[in-house]
Design a protein that fits this description.
The structure is a homodimer of 346-residue chains. Chain A is 49% helix and 19% strand. The first copy, chain A, contains 12 helices and 10 strands. Chain A is elongated. In chain A, the strands form 3 sheets. Chain A has a 5-stranded antiparallel β-sheet, sandwiched between helices. A 3-stranded antiparallel β-sheet of chain A has the order 4-5-6, covered by helices on one side. A two-stranded antiparallel ribbon of chain A has the order 1-2. Chain A has 346 residues and is α+β, with helices and mostly antiparallel strands. Chain A binds a DNA duplex (30 and 30 nucleotides) through helix 3.
Chain lengths: 346, 346
Amino acid sequence: MDLTERKLKILQAVIADFVRTAEPVGSRTISKNYELGSPATIRNEMSDLEELGYLTHPHTSSGRVPSEKAYRLYVNEMMGKTELTQEQKDAIARDLYSNVTEFENLIERAAHVLSEITNLTAFAISPGKEQDKLKYINLLPVDERTVILMLVAESGEVSNTAVHLDKPASEDTLRILAKNMTYNYSGKTLSEALTIDIIKTFKADAEAMAMFEHNIAPSFIRTLEDMLNVNLYMDGLTHIFSLPEYNDIEKAKTFFELVSRKQDIMQKLNSREDGMIITIGGENEDEELSDCSVITATYHVDGRLVGKLGVIGPTRMKYGEVTSVVEYLTDNLSKAFRLTEGDNDD
Amino acid sequence: MDLTERKLKILQAVIADFVRTAEPVGSRTISKNYELGSPATIRNEMSDLEELGYLTHPHTSSGRVPSEKAYRLYVNEMMGKTELTQEQKDAIARDLYSNVTEFENLIERAAHVLSEITNLTAFAISPGKEQDKLKYINLLPVDERTVILMLVAESGEVSNTAVHLDKPASEDTLRILAKNMTYNYSGKTLSEALTIDIIKTFKADAEAMAMFEHNIAPSFIRTLEDMLNVNLYMDGLTHIFSLPEYNDIEKAKTFFELVSRKQDIMQKLNSREDGMIITIGGENEDEELSDCSVITATYHVDGRLVGKLGVIGPTRMKYGEVTSVVEYLTDNLSKAFRLTEGDNDD
DNA sequence: GTTAGCACTCACAAGGTAAGAGTGCTAACA
DNA sequence: TGTTAGCACTCTTACCTTGTGAGTGCTAAC
C-alpha cells in the first residue's frame, strides 16, 4: 500500500497548509500553490488518501484535514531534518546561558527558551537522581541544640536540613556520628541508602545512638527523599491561547487543569523512554492528551542521570522545527553538565 | 450624604445577589427576597443609589450592578466579620500542616489551601530576608579542589554553594578563611553583608587571600543574593475559568499573561504595606488589575521577616469570607514560624 | 489518466422577529 | 409625603430564515 509520489506530495502539501493555517485545506488551494494538477485531479487523489485513512473530512463540503496516521507518516518518513542555521543556534545558546548560575536554573531556562522559540508549552524535568551516589555526610553544630545535616552527592548536589535535637550534643558526638554515617553510606546510591536499615548499621554509644535514632535518622530519610525528588518546570502556558484549537474556553480550561496537576504530568512524561519520542494524538495513552502531540527528549548529567525536555502542543505542529530545537537544547544541556563534571576532575 | 437605613439594606442586598450570581440584579428580585418594599419603591431607591454612584446600569433595561464605590463602602462599613466555625478552622489547619516538612513548603501550602477554600487565585510570597542576619559561615572540603560554602542565617535558613578552586587548598587555609568570614560577617544583615567591601575586610596570607578573592568571594556574593531572593507561589489559577467574568477568552488570556509575569506580580504585590489590604478594581494602580480586587495580608517570621499572602479575584468577591480565611492563615503562619523560632531558645 | 462543469452540501454571517427582564414615569392611594 | 400599581418603553437574547461561499462528488469530455 505504498503511496504514489503524487499522493505523497499532496499529503505533504495538505499537512503543510493545515499546520500553517489550522483550516481544512481544499483542492483548489493545493492546485494553485503546488503545481500538482487541476483541482479535480487533486480531489480524486484526496479522496483516495481519505479512503486510505490519511485525510479526514470534518463535513461534506469542507476541505481535508490530516489524520493522526498522516502525521505519523510525515514524522517517520517525510519530515526533513530542519537544520538550524548558525545564527539560530547562537541565539539559542545565548538565551540559554544568559543569567544562569546553577544546575536547576539552567534546566528551567531551557524550558523557557524552548517555549519561546516554538511558541508552544514547554517543560523540563530535572534528572532523576536514583543513580546519584552519596559522597559524604556531615553534621555541623549551629547552636547547642541545632545541627545541620549535610549530604553531598557525587553529582555535586548538596542538601542540608536543620535538625533540632532533644538534648545538647558535643562536637565529638557529632563527629563520630557523621563519620559513621559517611562510612556506611558513601558510595551508595540515594535509593540504596533509603533501603538500608538505618539503625542497625550503627555502632556507637547509647546516647549517640538515641540521638541518631530520634533526631537525625528521620531528617536523613526526609532529606534523601527530597534529593530524589525531580522538579518539573513548565513555561509558555499562555501560548495555547494563540492557537485556534484552544479558542474554545472549555478546551483551554481542560488544558490548564491538566498541566496544573504537576505530579500527574511529571509521572506521565517522566515514564517515557530515553531518546526523542514523539506521540501524536491518540498515541498518548492519556485521554486528556488525545488531541495533543507530545515531544520529549532526554539529556544526561555525567552520563548517568537522565532528565527530560519537551513540548506539548496541538497535533498540528511544526514537527521538523520543534524536534530540531529540542535536539539542539538537549545536546547543549548534556554538554553543559558534562563540562561541569569534567571541571571537577582536572 | 449618609444613606438611609433602607438604602443601605438595598445596597447590601444588591451586592449579595450580584456576588452570588454575577448577573445584574433587578428590583423585583430584591423585593421578593428581602421584604424591603415593592419593586417600584426599590426602583426609586435604586435610582437614588445610582445617582449617588453606588450602582450602575449596564444598559437601560437591565438590573443594577454595584460600583467600586459600593464595594468600598461594603468593605469599610457593612462587611460583618465572618467568624470561621471551629470545624472550618480545624479543616484549614489540617490541610495547612499536612504534608509539610519545611519553611518554604508551608508557605506554598498556605497558598494552596487559600485558593481551594476561596475558589480564587491565591498567592504567597516568602519573607523578604533583608533583616535576616548571618550567623556563621563555613567552608567544607569536598575534594581537593571543591569546597562547599555554607551560610547559616539566624532565621535558621541555610544555603550552600559548591565552589570550584583554582588550586588545592589545605584544610587549615579553609578553616582560617571561614573563621575570618564568620568574624567579619556574623551579626550583619544579609543586605549589610552585601555592601561591605569584601576584600578589604580580610587579613590572611597572600595565597589564602588570592583564593578568597577569586574563588570564594564571587560565590559568597551570589549566595547572599540568592538568600535575599523571595519566592512567589501561586495556586488555583484555573479557578478563574469558573468565573463568568472570564468566560471571554481574551480576558482569560490577559489574566494568565499577567500572572505568568511572576517578577512583575511579585514586585507589585510585595510593595504593598503591612497588614490586611484590600484594593478594589481601579484602586489597583495597575491597569491590568483594574477589574480585579486584590487582598493581601502579611505574616511574620520571628517578628521580623515579613511575607505576604493573598488572593486575586473579580471585584465581585465574597470579601467577608475571604478576609477571614486570609487572616486565619496569616495568623497560623506567624504562629508556626514563631514556634520554630521559640523552639530554638528553650 | 486528467480535466471541466455542474449539482449538491454544509458552515457561517446577516437580518428579522418574538420573548423576557427590567426600567422610568405617572397617577392613585394611605 | 412616602409607597405602590400599571403601563409604555428599552434593550438583550435566543431563534429562525436566508443568502453566500467554499468545497466536494460525480459525470462526461478530452
